[in-house]
Structure formats: C-alpha cells, structure tokens
Fold each of these.
Amino acid sequence: MRLDKYLSDMGCGTRSEIKKNIRAGRVTVDEKTIRDAGFSVQEEEEIRYLGELVRYEEFSYYMMNKPQGVISASEDRKMKTVIDLIDEEHRRKDLFPVGRLDRDTEGLLLITNDGQLAHRLLSPKKHVDKEYFAKVRGCVNDEDVKRFKEGVTIDGEYTCLPAELTILESGETSEVRVIIREGKFHQIKKMFEALGKEVLFLKRLRMGSLVLDPALPPGGYRRLTEEEVGEL
Ligand code: URA
C-alpha cells in the first residue's frame, strides 16, 4: 500500500497534511526517513508518523455514548454527526455508525468500518436484542407490559415482534426498560404512541452482547476491548 494511504487509513490526518509531513521528513519506515508519499509499505514494517508508531489495523471498533442533538450518520452538510465527535487521530475515512438512533436519543452506538459485522447485527433475521431506558409521559401499567409482550401494532399496520417492557417507576411520568429485537424507524416512540403514551427521553443501553460503558459521558467514546469484539 502507498505510504500516504496507509497513514490516512489509520486516521493520521488528511491526505494533504500527511503528504506535507512526508515531504518534510517527518515519516520513517523501518527507521529510514521516506519523503515519497507513493513509497510502498508492508504491514510488518515499523512506520512512524511524527515519531509515533502507527500500527496497521484492518478494523476499528468504538462504542460511543451518543449525545442528543447529533445525527447517526457518517456525514451531513448541515448537522453534526457522530463521526464528527471522533478525534482526528481516530477518524479513519471508512468509519460509520451501526444502525441509527434518533437525533434526540442518547446512548450506545457502535462505530466501526467492519461492514460484515454491521450487516450481521442489523439483519432483521438475526433479531439482535436492543435494550433501552425510557421516560414516558403517562402511567405505564401491567396492561402495557402485556401489549408489548403480545406485539404492539404501529403505523396502524405493522405488528411488532414481542418486546419486553419492565416498569421501574410508574406515575404521571414513568420510567421503564424496553427490549426490542428489531429496529423499525422510531420504533419505541411509536410503540408507546400506539398505547396513548409519549416517550420523553430515550437512551440505548445494550445491543446484543455490547453494554454501554457507564463511565462514558454523552459524546464520549472508547475502543472496544478484544473480548467485546469477540463476543459481538
Ligand atoms: N426507537 C426510537 O423510537 N428511537 C430510537 O432512536 C431508537 C429506538
């Protein structure tokens, strides 16, 4: 692979910044300064950019605690995206969020460049669990739990797969946990709407085996551990 492509794929900066630094003699390959951006490199060589070792990583995996107000997309002309929240040093060009959370939904979002994993997690046939915490206007009751279990009809036509609803607090506003096994557009909001209730706050806590790290503040992210990647 070309040296400039290698460094850009590993998120070292824009192609033009990288080329400038290569020309300026700030990049070494096996301890030799290389000033040619098109120089051919191999994964096993020791490549240093501004003195830092840059290891080759085919796939990158990050968990983000998505904050409200940003969209789950890779780029957008007007709005801030979750990829804009990734530091430049980690922001390789092929990163994308796995699935979508609404702009006003918070919580767990997997960000990766591993298309096959994303496909498996999102495939409607796989029924991967997605667990949410929600605050809902209205008194959530046992009848609602039963309706979720039987499958709520949304948009007047689609009957959702059985979902688990757990009441944490019930009152004028209620707090609940919900587990769904599919990912229709605005699904949880629509499920409550079908029961005459309104979701006021929604946060995803888990997707399959991947649990949101409670130490991550909104907008924070971290690499997945090898164990987390293996389990996914
Ligand atoms: N259900 C919703 O209504 N919104 C989300 O962002 C995720 C699930």
Amino acid sequence: MRSEALAVGVLGVGLMGDDHVERLVRRTAGARLVAVSDADPARAAAVAARHPQVRGIADPLDLVADPEVEAVLIASPGLVHEEQLLACIAHRKPTLCEKPLTMDAESAVRVMQAERAGGRPLVQVGFMRRFDPEYAAAKQLLDSGRLGRTLLLHNTHRNQQVPDTFGSEMIVRDSLVHEVDVARFLFGEEIAEVTVLGGLATRAAGDGVRDPLVALFRMAGGGLVTSEVFVNSQVGYEVRCEVVGERGTVVVGRNSAGLWTTTFDSLGAAGEHPPGGRWGGSVPPDFRVRFARAYDLEVQAWVDACRRGELVGPTSWDGYAATAVSSAALESLRSGLPVSVRLVHRESPS
Ligand code: ISE
C-alpha cells in the first residue's frame, strides 16, 4: 500500500455527505479531505468554514477534474449520479457512490460500459449494510451452510419520517433498494420477479404516497423475500431482518442483542444460541446512528482499497441490478401485478 494519504473530494454535503465529511476528517485512516461541492453553495461553504484545509468548489465537475483530488465520494441526489460518475470514470478517479447508482437501468448500463471501456473497475456503490457487522456475520453463517439452504428472508425497514419531497418513487429507489441489495447479498443470487403493494397509507405521508409498502421478491433460485418499508413510522429507525434456512433461522437488528440464531442441531433437537445480552434498548433515531459502524467500515475499506489500487465491496453491477429491480418494483406498484426482472448479459468484470 502506498504511504501517502488519499486526497478525497466529496460531491453533495447534505445529510449523508456531511456525515461522510466528518467521517473522512475524524475517523478514516489514510485519507485527507481536500474539496467539497454542493448544489447549495452555502452548504459547501459551511464545510469549508469548519475545516479550513478543505476547498469549496462550485461546479461538481470541476471538483472531479481537480488535479489535487484523487478519489471522489458521491453523496449527491441520485438524479445527478450518472453525469458525476461518468466524469469520475473519464478522469479515472476511484469513486464511492451512494445508492441509488442511477435513476434507471439504461443509465446504469451506460456507467458500467464507461467503466469497462476504461479497463479497470472504479466504482464502489454505497450499500453500507454489507459492512454492518451483524449483516456480515449473517452472511458468513449462511455461507457456512450451518442453516442449510436459505428459504426465506423477511425485512423490516422503518424510518421515523422523511421530507415531504419523498414520494413513492423515492421510497422504492432510495429505501427499498437496501432490501433489494440485502436480498441479493444474503442469497448470493439475482432477483427474478417483484411484486409491490401499497395498502392503507399512513396519514403522516404526503397525498398519494404509498407508505407503508410491502414487497415480495422471488429469487432466481426460488427463495422468497418479504419487505415492509414504512418511512413515516413516527417511531424511529428500525431495520431488521430474519433469514429462514432449512435448519434454522438468524435475526439481524434486534438492537443491543447482536446476532440471534435458532438452529436445529444434527440430532434433530432444537437448540438456541443467544449471543448474550438481552433484546431491548432504544430505537435509534436514524440511519446515521444505526449504521455508523457500517459507514465507518465501508469508507475505510474503500480508502484502503484505493491506496492499494483495488476495488472492494458492491460494484457497479450490484448498483445496476438493484436499479433494474427498483424499476420493476415501481412498475408493479402501479399495476399491482408481479413484474419480471430482466438484466443485461453480465460481462466478466474488467
Ligand atoms: C436513506 O437515503 C437511506 O439510505 C437510509 O438507509 C434509508 O433508511 C432511508 O429510507 C433513505 O431515505
């Protein structure tokens, strides 16, 4: 690994981008934040005022082209990701891009093609749950085969509230997209078909907004996934899941209790393996608190990989596949019918 710290620029310093700014400045080894840009110049100026070594650059594409910036973290709204990603790829700068990768499958394909034409993978997608110690432990347990074949996954995803601008499309593309990635990650296969239904909508949501939603995914291998997404639950940030295998279950996100498994041992007797501690405690207010450790590990892994000249974590293919599923989910939400997910042929990573 090279010895100098990686010079990072951040695009978008709203809620998430600002959180990453503090992470890069205070908690990430081997990185130095050198520049930020935001559609709202006051937000970029506020970061620069807090951190005098950081330059505010008005045009995001100038930040990407800036010779001092070696790697880019994109935390701007999904609508501008395609343009910003294509610029990063053109300048051959490794990029950590918050989800969603782009707003539709076609633009995600354009990003993959540009990356491929450049000859080396450059884009990591910010599906931070893969770095969460509990989700990662569940994945390891499933891969170990101890629970047998994975049959079902049940997800719960609640936010206390979201801004008025958050309509049904954002609930799918910005929130449900995490369950899309978790399903692909834990099963290790693609999603073949999606059904999304809105039922009674909470009065806390805006007019016509389908909140909560329930989604059903049929995995390519036949497994099933249910997901509740409720972004105006009023309570707090509750993200958990339960995986049902042929020989036991595992629960992620029971707050302070860590990973819970219930297995059927080889003699056929039921056995419980609580991790110690108790289920209970407080519900975190938002994702920055619940997934603080996951974000730290994600950004550190990205910085370390960039300094080694490598790429780790979810790729542009993962971002593309998730975007394609989101588009199918929106189609299903409109029609109430199951929609098949058709992915382009996967070329081997460059
Ligand atoms: C937000 O953008 C996130 O990524 C959070 O993890 C998710 O819970 C929230 O619903 C999204 O708006």
